[in-house]
């Protein structure tokens, strides 16, 4: 028997994605947008033990409804453990990877294991589970140290000789691993380098600007 696929069937077919770090500031916004698009089954993964405590915000309201309807699910995942990543990644089409932003820079070993080893583990899990696409959230600080403007920058742009802190150095290493993994074993990878991210739910950047303005240090 031949089964014909109609345009309506294609339109209603949902793909599955994993958002590692899905309860962070940027992760919440990404999850909300994916749910709004409606074409995704979203697996929210995060390492925080309290990461599924939702609030009345618009993004969390969307997530709460999606959890009830089955459009979303949650899984506690430690990226230092490849087996945990594999569990949440099986059957996914795309993995979005965002690391925690509240790491203690005094603990180099833990930062290395989460950022660099975590990137290795995510790549290996994607290969193991035959994931087609991996999107990694890096940082503009990888290439921008404040000493000069970047105009029409591309991948050939030379990174600074010295990074402003350890976390940026480690993210540079992780980014390199993600980029090197591109187009190997059927996995396509992409690295994003956002600058100052802000918006609904921001508790850092805009409040910082407000405090600087109140102190007369910014206009």
Automatic annotation (TrEMBL):
The keyword Transcription does not apply. GO terms for biological process: steroid biosynthetic process. It comes from the Eukaryota. SUPFAM superfamilies: NAD(P)-binding Rossmann-fold domains. Residues 18-218 form the 3-beta hydroxysteroid dehydrogenase/isomerase domain. Keywords: Oxidoreductase. GO terms for molecular function: oxidoreductase activity, acting on the CH-OH group of donors, NAD or NADP as acceptor. PANTHER family: BIFUNCTIONAL POLYMYXIN RESISTANCE PROTEIN ARNA, SHORT CHAIN DEHYDROGENASE_REDUCTASE FAMILY 42E, MEMBER 2. Belongs to the 3-beta-HSD family. This is 3-beta hydroxysteroid dehydrogenase/isomerase domain-containing protein.
């Amino acid at each position: 028997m031949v089964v014909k696929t109609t345009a309506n069937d294609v339109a209603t077919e949902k793909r599955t994605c994993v958002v590692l770090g899905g309860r962070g500031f940027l992760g919440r916004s990404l999850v909300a947008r994916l749910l709004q698009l409606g074409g995704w089954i979203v697996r929210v993964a995060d390492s925080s033990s309290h990461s599924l405590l939702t609030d009345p915000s618009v993004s969390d309201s969307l997530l709460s409804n999606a959890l009830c309807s089955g459009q979303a699910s949650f899984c506690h995942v430690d990226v230092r453990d490849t087996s945990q990543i594999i569990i949440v990644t099986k059957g996914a089409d795309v993995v979005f990877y965002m690391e925690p932003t509240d790491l203690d820079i005094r603990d180099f070993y833990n930062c290395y294991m989460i950022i660099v080893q975590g990137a290795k583990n995510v790549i290996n899990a994607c290969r193991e589970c035959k994931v087609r696409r991996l999107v990694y959230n890096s940082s503009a600080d990888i290439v921008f140290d404040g000493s000069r403007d970047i105009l029409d920058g591309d991948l050939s742009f030379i990174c600074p000789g010295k990074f402003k802190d350890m976390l940026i150095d480690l993210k540079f290493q992780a980014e390199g691993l993600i980029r090197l993994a591109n187009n190997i074993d059927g996995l396509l990878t992409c690295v994003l380098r956002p600058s100052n991210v802000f918006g609904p739910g921001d508790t850092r950047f805009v409040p910082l600007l407000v405090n600087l303005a109140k102190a007369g240090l910014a206009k």
